[in-house]
Amino acid sequence: MSPDLRGAMRNFATGVCVATTYADHEGIRRHDAVTLNSLTSVSLDPPLVSMSLRRGSQFLDDLLATKQWAISILDSDAESLARRLARSREDRAEAVAALDATPGPATGALMLDAQSSLECVLWDSFDLGDHTMVIGEVVTTGVRDLQPPLLFLHGTFHQLATAATTKES
């Protein structure tokens, strides 16, 4: 009997973010975005983050080809967006086309009006089990007024109404 890792990890609350990247085909840029909760800060010097994506996904293939992406950390008002971008690539296409987002100045990947944002360039990647972990060097960041975060716990989204909404000095 194998361990129930999915069941155990359902008890670990994580933040929710959207990663964006793109592919250029015949002079046309096609953006893509996915919801994920595997974002981790790896290093402050140099500034590195990691995220894990299902191996074989077209999003991962596009990211590895462009070697750049953006991450938008979502607040509690973004649950419906997180749900729309957690679907298959075909189902996400309409939501991506309607995103209120602008290309990031460093990468060209879409940046949402979100809690925080990061633009990353590929530092390294590792195939681990059924996923690929990508390590990105953070080249730009943005932080706006803090709102309660969107969390993922027990297989569903939650709002943490008691989160601090002021910046530390």
Describe it for me?
The chain has helices at 5-9, 58-66, 79-84, 89-97; strands at residues 14-15, 17-25, 28-36, 40-44, 47-54, 68-73, 101-103, 110-112, 116-128, 131-143, 150-153, 156-159. It is globular. It has a single domain (15-159), classed as Pnp Oxidase, Chain A, CATH 2.30.110. The termini are far apart. With 169 residues, the protein is of the alpha+beta class. The longest helix has 9 residues, at 58-66. The protein contains 4 helices and 12 strands. The protein has a 7-stranded antiparallel β-sheet with strand order 3-2-6-9-10-5-4. A 3-stranded antiparallel β-sheet has the order 1-11-12, with no helix packed on it.
Oligomeric state of the chains present here: single chain
Provide the domain count: 1
Q: From the helix content, strand content and strand pairing, which structural class follows? A: alpha+beta
CATH class: Mainly Beta
Order of helices and strands: HEEEEEHEHHEEEEEE
Protein name: Flavin reductase family protein
InterPro entries: Flavin_Rdtase-like_dom, NADH-dep_flavin_reductase, Split_barrel_FMN-bd
Organism: Streptomyces lichenis
Keywords: Oxidoreductase
